[in-house]
Amino acid sequence: MATMPGISFEFFPPRTPEQHIILDSTWKILSRLSPNYLSVTFGAGGSAQAATLEAVDTMLEKAGVPVAPHISCMADSSEGIRDLLNEYRARGVDHLVVLRGDRQEGVHASGRFQYASDLVGWVREEFGDDFHIEVACYPEIHPESESLQSEMKYFRQKVEAGANGAITQYFFNPDSYFHFRDDALRMGVDIPITPGIMPITNYKQLARFSNICGAEIPIWIRRRLESYGDDGASIREFGLEVVTSLCEQLLNGGAPGLHFYTLNRANATMRLWQNLTSYFVDKAASKPVRG
Fold it and tell me: Is-catalytic flag, 146?
């Protein structure tokens, strides 16, 4: 049988008792798929940061797979991040996702770190190779980048600061990934670049996310989703078809794995993975047997 690709699943920390129940159910289901790791996004401070730490602790204890917490430049101080990373290291965490973090336009981070490359370099200085570091990248260009050239420059700075791998913002045009990967290789960046995958389950929510992060919804997909109106079942079935095809094209083109933005829901991601499992079984069965 063809080798299944490496996968990882991303969650956000819960803020209410109801969200706790949903998240617990979700990671318990998806961790059965033997992912490379589960990741938990970073709360900027106070109770949100505590919720991240609590979620990481729970998954470390019960999931049976590695957990990769996010850290960001939105943290209050380097001392706070140092304490947090010491806690993570003591708990057995050896994988981080390091980001700049979201901030209002024109507003700089209040702490020591302005950019993800600053934070990556600091983690390397403080902790050496104790952590495998993933960073973000943007095949369709970050909304704040002036050009593709500036986007690639910032990406290279994160790699030179010590990143081991990268996870992309989600996208629906596979060519954007392949062009970005090839551009990175041409400038000497050869770390694994894992596509970020967003299941399509709610068009209004997806459109809102995409407007914020700059991810393009191709016009043919947008028009089809709009045509379904409030027919959630049709949106989910069409979304499953589109994103399954996207994943197949990415894996056929050499993507090193897939990182799923689960939005703390298991069903859409699980159905995607079932489709891909069937795809790999069928692909293996179609290979000619050599005598």
Answer: no
